[in-house]
Design goal:
322 residues, Rossmann fold, single chain
Length: 322
């Protein structure tokens, strides 16, 4: 056997091994995704908005409150802790494009003005009369963008642990999923990202919900399983990469917001700095109803439900009276 033949054989073996490993991770990823969809099936309705198939829930009767979830979240982040506590209102929560059971049109960027425009068009498609919009985390920044770019569509805003400040660089906790290449993002989503996310889910949830405990039945009733699907991962990373494109310009415009507004922020938030995104934001919006939540983490709708419900009701009273 010649050296060339030996080299060719080794290369063939290495390629076969690599392809086998890729095939294995693709199989495992699809298996986890099927398990996730069986554990948390769709619970709402679907509507087309500019080619995006949006999954949403619509419950109750009264003046409308629209909920916009954060990075990696789903509509269950509101439906589970809040919907049973806000009687007297029509409550609508969406899976943002690419998240949960909503799909994102090919070519979408995930940038903040794009997502805010989709929220405005969703309001029109459902015929909602100037809803109060409640946004959590990244959804809070999208809510602020709606207030800046489409103020005529809404009556007020409530921000829960909202992203409000641009920072240079990538936080260490987000570095593993900050993937700028679309191709690499897609390959990761289809192979190793989901098995790795499942393996480290307890640590991730402890970080996101801490210092409070992860809510009981979060993986099912809170929609946690739905994050363990390749499309959801791809959309989440797309949003993470896109957010920095518009943050600097948008945050300079916060003083333009002229509508009833409230914010709840936990002082023990591990995901977004309370000092930078909460306390420093207080003076940026006129007459902001600010609720400081001592010792609460990144999900105040779970960790301080009573105070969040009271805040939403206070801002709703101002917004709908106006």
């Amino acid at each position: 056997m010649t050296l060339a033949t030996i080299a060719s054989t080794l290369i063939a073996l290495l390629l076969a091994t690599a392809l086998g490993a890729i095939g294995y991770f693709v199989y495992v990823t699809q298996r986890i995704a099927r398990r996730a969809e069986a554990a948390v099936p769709p619970v709402g309705e679907f509507i087309d908005v500019d080619g995006n198939r949006i999954h949403y829930v619509d419950e109750g009767a009264g003046r409308p409150i629209l909920f916009v979830h954060g990075l990696g979240g789903t509509l269950h982040h509101f439906r589970q802790p809040l919907f049973g506590r806000l009687d007297g209102f029509r409550l609508i929560a969406i899976d943002r494009p690419g998240a949960g059971y909503s799909t994102r049109v090919p070519g979408a960027t995930g940038r903040l003005p794009e997502q805010a425009a989709l929220v405005a068009k969703f309001i029109d498609r459902l015929g909602l009369e100037k809803p109060l919009v409640v946004g959590h985390s990244l959804g809070g920044m999208i809510t602020l963008t709606v207030a800046l770019n489409h103020p005529e569509k809404i009556s007020g805003i409530v921000l829960l642990a909202a992203l409000t400040r641009h920072r240079d660089g990538v936080p260490p906790e987000m570095a593993p999923i900050y993937i700028r290449s679309k191709l690499k993002r897609w390959i990761m989503a289809q192979t190793v990202a989901i098995p790795a996310a499942l393996k480290f889910a307890p640590q991730t949830l402890a970080y996101v919900f801490g210092p409070q405990a992860t809510p009981e039945r979060y993986m099912t009733e809170g929609g946690g399983w739905l994050g363990l699907r390749p499309g959801h991962f791809y959309a989440m990373v797309t949003d993470l990469v896109a957010v920095a494109e518009d943050m600097p310009d948008l945050q300079r415009r916060f003083g333009e917001i002229d509508m009833p507004a409230g914010m709840a922020f936990g002082t023990a938030d591990r995901v977004l700095s309370y000092a930078e995104n909460g306390d420093a934001f207080r003076a940026r919006v006129r007459d902001l109803d600010f609720e400081m939540l001592d010792g609460i983490g990144h999900h105040p709708q779970y960790g301080a439900t009573d105070k969040v419900v009271a805040l939403i009701r206070r801002v709703a009273a101002r917004a709908f009276a106006a």
